[in-house]
Amino acid sequence: MKRFPLTGLLLALTQVAALSQTPPSQPKLVIGIVVDQMRYDYLYRYRDSYGEGGFKRLLAQGFSCENTHYNYVPTYTAPGHAAIYTGTTPAVNGIIANEWWDPEWQAHRYVTTDKRYTTVGGTPGRVGQHSPAVLLSSTITDELRLAHNFRSKVVGICLKDRASILPAGHIPNACYWFDDETGNWITSTYYPDSTGLPQWVQDFNARKLPDAFLSKNWAADSTMTYEQSFDNWDAYNDGKYFSPFNGKAMPYNLPELKKKGGYSVIRFTPFGNTLTLDFAVDAINKMQLGADDVPDFLCISFSSPDYCAHQFGIHGKETEDMYLRLDRDLARFLNFLDKKLGRENVLVFLTADHGGAETPVHLRDIGMPAGVFPESSMEKSLENVLAAALGVTGDFIHEVNNQQIWLNWDAIADLEVSPDDVASVIIGYLKQQPGVYDAFTREELMMFPEEYPFASLMRRGIHQKRSGDILYQLDPAWHADDQFFGTGGTTHGSTYAYDTHIPLIWYGWKIRSGESFAPVDITDIAPTLSAMLRIMEPNGTTGKVIEPLFK
Ligand SMILES: [Zn+2]
């Protein structure tokens, strides 16, 4: 039978178009995007300056869980990434902080440090001495690998080692982070690339993109007004921070700063995001992520917004500039995914590992209560107070960190003083200090009624074998001092909304456009992904499926 050729062709084309727009039963690629230190309000604070293709596109075409919070303390990078991907809190996954006193090591530890392994592709030694062994429960990425009998590919990418390692879980195909000394993307011998970087990573490193990014100035964009930032904020950038940006102002001469700070300089600039994204796009292309029907998972974390806000705070023009340019990078990435894989084949979620506080010195300057608690000198102060109160001098305390105190039980036994006396002297002193809301032993915290403010957030942050013996909570707008922020900068870590309230947007695949203000915990992301992917939840999951997404 003779058919009319044009109609047949049109019909065929329509069928192809219809087929390509019907989401498959599972996405081909899941992409987790974590923006380090992105507060919820940044979606709207800088909205007028965002283009149509980045954050605005996610909000308009995706589903936003507007009321998503961290449900434990401390709100730091390592616990944040762990909670997103394990669906549980430090009490179960064991990631109680970025660093802490490790009772097992009897030493201070950095979260992912593992000296059994070394660097692949960069500076030998410390920078590659990492593994996820410290993470006690499985991740959604682990479960995806197990569910599909290792046919799903999982990749972690972030400038920060811990924010690449923890999301990618225990059994990824690859995991990469940034080496400040060589400017290379590297991995550790823990991972499958243990004998050398794959050719595509070597080729990417050989392009020396960090050199290109750091050969220019970081200047304000002349088309932007920066209405959400102060013009005179530079006065707060007084050089108390260790970074090469101390005492400088925009435009930054990056080649000059690089002489002092090396490749680490890129971490503080929007080009750190661009570099991360360029590498992620290359990973999708070269590792053929999303190429077949078995779902793959790419974990991307953008660290630069965190370094920037620690240095310049919320009101610095640099932070606004960081988000304007990240918005453009996101637009570029979403366009790439549309073209490469088709929106209906890709499931994206975007969230943050914690928020960030208003800069305390600035709040005080404008007449609001705020302060900085001298945590870095607290061990010494407490040792002096204990010696005076107990009449013996000794090393009573291992470490004061993350608003926790690890007692030296051996020394306390040797000195023949009562542990209860040590605890009550410490707690009595802490309670009198400005900015301290309350102080208590770990045992007391476990007995507090649920109505005690923040009791459940603090309890979910306690791991029985790892956490400190005495804890304290600061007043709102107070945070601990450390070397990681300057006078004009900020930090995070508390139970308060500015640290716990973060964005959560779902986009692509079967996600309909919409928003919900129903309360969502950060630990709900992983079980929700399990529901979408029809696989088991991570083995320590305490979160629940976000139902409004499925209505
Ligand atoms: Zn962080």
Largest sheet: 10 strands, mixed
Q: What general form does the structure show?
A: globular
What's the arrangement of strands in the largest beta sheet?
A: 6-9-8-7-12-1-13-21-2-22
Q: Averaging pLDDT over every residue, what do you get?
A: 94
Q: Strand-residue fraction?
A: 15-25%
Name the bound molecules.
zinc ion
Low-pLDDT residue intervals, each spanning 5 or more residues: 1-19
For this structure, the CATH topology of the largest domain is Alkaline Phosphatase, subunit A
> Rg from C-alpha positions?
24 Å
Characterise this structure:
It is a single chain. This protein has 551 residues and is an alpha/beta fold. It has 2 domains: 30-360 and 496-550, Alkaline Phosphatase, subunit A (3-Layer(aba) Sandwich); 371-476, Gyrase A, domain 2 (2-Layer Sandwich), CATH 3.30.1360. The strands form 6 sheets. A 10-stranded mixed beta sheet has the order 6-9-8-7-12-1-13-21-2-22, sandwiched between helices. A hairpin with a 4-residue loop joins strand 4 (99-102) and strand 5 (107-110). Helix 11 (271-286) runs parallel beside helix 13 (317-340). The radius of gyration is 24 Å and the shape is globular. Zinc ion is lined by residues 36-37, 77, 80, 306, 353-354.
